[in-house]
């Protein structure tokens, strides 16, 4: 790359969001919209990839502008770039279809082929070329100026001879320089070798004298090296001096020859050369004698020797400067000196070797002498001992002769005794020797046997290894044969499916041909009937088939030619119609094939999903049985029979699970084979067929497509009508069921006269009995009877005609009323388990009655209020344990509920309904998030669930009342709207949050103000001081920091402390007096902290998370007091009264908890972790 040339490139790393199936994710609201948007973007990207990678679509338009994603990726996909797609898949069989679709998507992206080239600017390219040309011309001009190039007589360019000569001289100079360098290296090596030899010689001489040491040797070596360097410098100086002398003599000769006044006189040249030569020779002889003496003696110290050598060198340098004419003789003498020195060194080495050999001989002689002396001393000692023994024996013999015979006998007996003992020992030793010989013989036999056995073992091992190899080879052959058979079976199955598929196609084609033939036969029959009266016209008979075939496939405006038309145009029209019919049949078959394949794959996917669901159910059941089996096994021998029964059930469940797994694997294999068959069977290219159509063929195909669309639309309409009929029957069945429930209700009402509890349950339902009877009777009468039975206040009297849709809505409403009257909620007691009897927090009752998740709860000492996703708010009597009433008609989920002085406030979407429950469930006001107020129920006309929020309104997330019940605070959007409940008017807003306000709480401060604390999705908690009668926009008085790491879900106030729970799984404690953070628990729960509450009568904080877990914390230290599984689903809200705690969950229940004793001690909380299954 040149100096001013730069290469730039871009790297795009795009993280694509995965496609989502709403059926799998279950997303709703904004999450569902986001998933739909992602799927739309991926669909547009897939279209672009197909257009770029499919060879048959390369000439078509690439739809880059269909989405923002494809527009951003335009350069990366089809531009001057290389594209790589990394697909993420799942190994789970639950995600088989997603994995298959992902791989197909990535396979299409792999077909994109781009060629990357370097794009270069024309201006920069031209500038670069001009710069190169300028540099070349400057170089050529320089060659002309220096004379390298020249113009000959004939005008041709040539290279100067001086340039060639200069090049040759430079080459020769380089070669000589290399030779000089090599010779210099050789000289240095020889100098180092000479230095080493001289130092070794000096060390040997010093070693002989006995004065050698390592330091002295190194010093001698350094001195010798320095001497050699100085000698080399001396030789160089003498050579330079000789050259200077020769130049000077030539200059003197020239000056004397010319006789100039500037000639040199002999006095200037110095003394007589002969005298100088003799002096130099004498000095050299002296130096030689000195060197010989020094080499012969070598007894002086190294320091003196070095000084003498330096003095000699200085003298030699001075002599060399004085006399240079006799340098050759001096060199010869020095060479002789060096030869003598080498001889001396050689003799010294030889003598040193002789000395070493003599010393070794001396040492050997000394050693032999010592050994001889030791042997001599040993012999002398033996001789001395022998003499002593001799004297002692002689002395004893003399003593024995003088002794008595008894003593001799005694000595003889002792001798014989010793001799017998020694004989016995000899016999024992001989026996041992025989035994030893026998053992040696046996040992040799044993060794032979051992060798034989070892050989046999070795042979057996070899045989075993050979057999193992044969077994492995046989197993490998069997495995390969089995795999080959499996492949053959798979191929046969595949061929069978292909044949079945082809058979179905042929059958469909045959049916289609039969249908076409029957239709043509009917048309011919009809035409024959029309042609019979004109049988006399032969020309019409001849032209009839042609005109029919022509008119049958032409537009209605075309003319029908008679027999007078030219005969040459008929074959063309017939041929084009036949070709168009063939194309239509191929397209129709292709469409039928695609429909059948997709239906088959869809059915297989449904079967696989059903099998996956069955496997999940069986797995949960197996886990439940396993836990039960472990529990029974821990009880002891009492539950052995039950454990055996459970083991059999587990075995059957495992067999079912294995069977389902095999079925899932087969289903996946079938889907893959269908995909392969679909890829192999795509023989008809629809786009190619359509692209090759002429105008008349396109009209023919368009007519048939129109006919097919009409037929399919007719079939769809018929199916829809059938579905409506079935829905009507289903509703009629539901009405009949409701009627039966009503009859059951009347029967229960009669029995309620004798049962007070049942009378309390049905007390509120008695009011609607009179209105229910006309509705029930009108359901079985004609439509006119319905209009007469309806009271004047009913909206149905305004209609003059009967509407089936309205009747269906009335029946549905009647069904809901019937269900509400009969299926009222009830608060059931919960039996106390053994493990939870000592627990501080116990579940005592469960309120059941909602059909969907319970989102909010509020309570007093006598009443309980719950809001649910079923769009109702239920009112419960805590004294009787029964549902009092159900407040319905909400447009969507009831997300918040509050009660104050006979008024119930419920929140749904952007509306707050105010209910007066003193006489009956009546909505008296409807408050909107925008500040508008409506009398009565503004949402009464909404019968179906409404997800959209009107323009100008915001979603209301939570409401709260001040302690006096005069002001209502509603969190709508990123602000909180204030309502004066005495006049039902909006008085102002609390602003300051950047995100939606998710929760709030209101307390009464000491100076008569309302203390409002809000938590938002912007992670912050703000505090507002609201005075009575405040108007307009109010800013926060304090912003609590540091914030949470995620949105705030719940806040609760106890005294001067504020507790907050967030989606970051943490709980924080704030001091309201000092407005700072006191304590925090970062990971209080494993999931979002959704609700907080203070346990009545105890210094304990209760928290509930999205995982259904309840935890107790000490309000002073935030230390954990215990935890338990409160619900199996997320806990959405916590409320308390003076004695009870209420928790609402997604499991459609509200659990009622009672606190036992104080929570100051933590010893009683150890058993709370076991309380999950019983509650």
TrEMBL record:
Residue span(s) of domain Kinesin motor: 1-112
UniProt keyword list: ATP-binding, Cell projection, Coiled coil, Cytoplasm, Cytoskeleton, Microtubule, Motor protein, Nucleotide-binding, Phosphoprotein, Repeat, WD repeat
SMART domains registered for this protein in UniProt: KISc, WD40
Gene Ontology biological process terms from the UniProt entry: microtubule-based movement; mitotic spindle organization; spindle elongation; system development
Highest taxon listed in the record's lineage: Eukaryota
WD repeats by residue range: 847-886, 887-918, 1124-1153
Principal location listed in the UniProt entry: other
InterPro entries: ARM-type_fold, KIF21A/B_hel_1, KIF21A/B_hel_2, Kinesin-like_fam, Kinesin_motor_CS, Kinesin_motor_dom, Kinesin_motor_dom_sf, P-loop_NTPase
Region (Disordered): 253-276, 293-333, 547-572, 618-639, 772-804
Compartment(s): Cell projection, Axon; Cell projection, Dendrite; Cell projection, Growth cone; Cytoplasm, Cytoskeleton
Record-level GO cellular component terms: dendrite; growth cone; microtubule; microtubule associated complex
Pfam families: KIF21A, KIF21A_2nd, KIF21A_4th, Kinesin, WD40
Biased composition (Acidic residues): 304-333
Biased segments, Basic residues type: 621-630
GO molecular function: ATP binding; microtubule binding; microtubule motor activity
Coiled-coil spans in chain: 341-523
PROSITE patterns: KINESIN_MOTOR_1, KINESIN_MOTOR_2, WD_REPEATS_1, WD_REPEATS_2, WD_REPEATS_REGION
Assigned protein family: Belongs to the TRAFAC class myosin-kinesin ATPase superfamily. Kinesin family.
Listed name of the protein: Kinesin family member 21A
Organism the protein comes from: Astyanax mexicanus
Lineage, broadest ranks: Eukaryota, Metazoa, Chordata, Craniata, Vertebrata
């Amino acid at each position: 790359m040149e100096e001013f040339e730069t290469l730039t490139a871009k790297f795009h790393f795009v993280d694509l969001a995965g496609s989502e199936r709403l059926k799998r994710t279950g997303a709703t609201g904004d999450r569902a919209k986001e998933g739909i948007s992602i799927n739309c973007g991926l669909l547009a990207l897939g279209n672009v990839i197909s257009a770029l990678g499919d060879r048959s679509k390369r000439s078509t338009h690439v739809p880059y502008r269909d989405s923002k994603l494809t527009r951003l990726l335009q350069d990366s996909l089809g531009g001057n770039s290389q594209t790589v797609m990394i697909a993420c898949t799942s190994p789970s069989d639950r995600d088989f279809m997603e994995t298959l679709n992902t791989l197909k998507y990535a396979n299409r992206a792999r077909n994109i082929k781009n060629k990357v080239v370097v794009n270069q600017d024309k201006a920069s390219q031209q500038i670069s070329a001009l710069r190169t040309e300028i540099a070349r011309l400057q170089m050529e001009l320089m060659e002309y100026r220096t004379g390298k190039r020249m113009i000959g007589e004939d005008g041709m360019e040539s290279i100067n001879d001086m340039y060639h000569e200069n090049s040759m001289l430079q080459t020769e100079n380089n070669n000589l320089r290399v030779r000089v360098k090599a010779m210099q290296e050789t000289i240095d090596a020889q100098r180092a070798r000479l230095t080493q030899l001289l130092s070794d010689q000096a060390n040997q001489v010093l070693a002989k004298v006995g004065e050698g040491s390592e330091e002295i040797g190194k010093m001698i070596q350094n001195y010798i090296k320095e001497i050699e360097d100085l000698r080399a410098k001396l030789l160089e100086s003498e050579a330079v001096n000789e050259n200077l002398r020769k130049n000077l003599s030539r200059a003197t000769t020239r000056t004397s020859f010319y006789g100039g006044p500037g000639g040199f006189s002999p006095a200037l040249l110095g003394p007589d050369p002969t005298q100088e030569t003799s002096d130099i020779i004498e000095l050299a002889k002296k130096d030689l004698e000195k060197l010989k003496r020094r080499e012969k003696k070598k007894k002086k110290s190294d320091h003196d020797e070095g000084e003498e050598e330096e003095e000699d060198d200085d003298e030699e340098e001075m002599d060399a400067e004085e006399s240079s004419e006799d340098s050759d003789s001096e060199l010869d003498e020095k060479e002789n000196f060096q030869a003598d020195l080498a001889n001396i060194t050689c003799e010294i080495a030889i003598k040193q070797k002789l000395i070493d050999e003599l010393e070794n001989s001396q040492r050997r002689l000394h050693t032999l002498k010592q050994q001889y002396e030791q042997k001599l001393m040993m012999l002398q000692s033996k001789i001395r001992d022998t003499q002593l023994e001799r004297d002692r024996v002689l002395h004893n013999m003399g003593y024995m002769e003088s002794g008595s015979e008894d003593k001799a006998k005694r000595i003889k007996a002792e001798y014989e005794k010793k001799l017998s003992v020694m004989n016995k020992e000899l016999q024992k030793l001989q026996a041992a020797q025989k035994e030893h010989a026998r053992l040696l013989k046996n040992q040799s036999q044993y060794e032979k046997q051992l060798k034989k056995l070892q050989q046999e073992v070795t042979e057996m091992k070899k045989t075993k290894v050979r057999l193992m190899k044969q077994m492995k080879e046989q197993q490998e052959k069997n495995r390969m044969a089995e795999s080959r058979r499996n492949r053959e079976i798979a191929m046969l199955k595949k061929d069978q499916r292909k044949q079945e598929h082809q058979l179905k196609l042929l059958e469909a084609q045959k049916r289609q041909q039969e249908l076409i033939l029957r239709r043509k036969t009917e048309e011919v029959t009809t035409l024959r009937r029309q042609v019979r009266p004109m049988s006399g016209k032969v020309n019409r008979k001849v032209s009839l088939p042609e005109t029919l075939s022509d008119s049958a496939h032409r537009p209605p405006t075309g003319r029908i030619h008679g027999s007078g038309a030219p005969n040459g145009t008929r074959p063309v029209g017939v041929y084009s119609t036949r070709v168009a019919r063939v194309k239509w049949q191929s397209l129709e078959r292709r469409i039928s094939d695609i429909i059948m394949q997709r239906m088959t794959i869809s059915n297989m996917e449904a079967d696989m999903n059903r099998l996956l669901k069955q496997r999940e159910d069986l797995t949960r059941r197996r886990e439940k049985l396993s836990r039960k089996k472990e529990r029974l096994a821990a009880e002891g021998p009492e539950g052995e029979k039950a454990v055996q029964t459970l083991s059999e059930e587990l075995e059957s469940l495992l067999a079912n699970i294995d069977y389902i797994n095999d079925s899932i694997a087969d289903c996946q294999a079938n889907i893959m084979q269908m995909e392969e068959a679909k890829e192999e069977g795509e023989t008809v290219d629809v786009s190619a067929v359509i692209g090759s159509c002429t105008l008349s063929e396109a009209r023919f195909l368009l007519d048939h497509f129109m006919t097919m669309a009409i037929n399919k639309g007719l079939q769809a309409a018929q199916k829809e009508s059938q579905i409506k009929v079935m829905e009507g029957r289903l509703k009629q069945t539901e009405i009949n069921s409701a009627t039966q429930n009503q009859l059951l209700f009347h029967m229960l009402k009669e029995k309620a006269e004798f049962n007070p509890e049942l009378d309390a349950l049905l007390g509120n339902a008695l009011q609607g009995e009179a209105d229910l009877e006309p509705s029930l009777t009108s359901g079985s009468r004609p439509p006119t009877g319905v209009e007469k039975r309806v009271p004047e206040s009913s909206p149905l009297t305004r209609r003059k005609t009967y509407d089936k849709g309205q009747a269906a809505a009335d029946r549905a409403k009647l069904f809901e009323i019937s269900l509400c009257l009969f299926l009222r909620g009830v608060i059931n007691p919960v039996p106390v388990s053994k493990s939870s009897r000592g627990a501080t927090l116990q579940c005592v009752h469960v309120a059941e009655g909602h059909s969907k998740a319970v989102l909010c709860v509020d309570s007093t000492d006598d009443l309980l209020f719950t809001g649910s996703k079923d769009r109702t708010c239920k009112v419960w009597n805590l004294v009787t344990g029964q549902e009092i009433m159900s407040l319905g008609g909400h447009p969507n989920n009831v997300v918040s509920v509050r009660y104050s002085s006979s008024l119930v406030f419920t929140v749904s979407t952007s509306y707050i309904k105010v209910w007066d429950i003193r006489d009956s469930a009546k909505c008296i006001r409807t408050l909107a998030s925008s500040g508008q107020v409506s009398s009565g129920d503004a949402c009464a006309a909404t019968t179906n669930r409404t997800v959209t929020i009107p323009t100008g309104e915001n979603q209301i997330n939570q409401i709260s009342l001040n302690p006096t019940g005069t002001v209502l605070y509603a969190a709508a959007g990123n602000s909180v709207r204030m309502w004066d409940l005495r006049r039902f008017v909006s008085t102002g807003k609390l602003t300051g949050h950047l995100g939606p306000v998710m929760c709030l709480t209101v307390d009464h401060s000491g100076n008569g103000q309302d203390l409002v604390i809000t938590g938002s999705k912007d992670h912050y908690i703000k505090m507002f001081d609201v005075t009575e009668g405040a108007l307009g926009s109010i800013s926060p008085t304090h912003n609590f920091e540091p914030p949470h790491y995620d949105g705030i879900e719940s806040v609760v106030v106890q005294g001067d402390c504020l507790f907050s729970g967030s989606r970051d799984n943490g709980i924080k404690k704030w001091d309201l007096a000092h407005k700072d953070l006191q304590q925090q628990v970062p990971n209080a729960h494993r999931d979002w902290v959704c609700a907080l509450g203070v346990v009545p009568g105890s210094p304990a904080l209760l928290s509930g998370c999205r995982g259904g877990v309840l935890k107790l914390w000490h309000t002073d230290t935030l230390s954990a007091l215990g935890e338990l599984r409160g619900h199996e689903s997320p806990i959405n809200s916590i409320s308390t009264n003076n004695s009870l705690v209420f928790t609402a969950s997604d499991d459609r229940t509200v659990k009622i908890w009672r606190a036992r004793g104080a929570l100051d001690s933590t010893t009683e909380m150890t058993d709370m972790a076991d309380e999950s299954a019983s509650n």
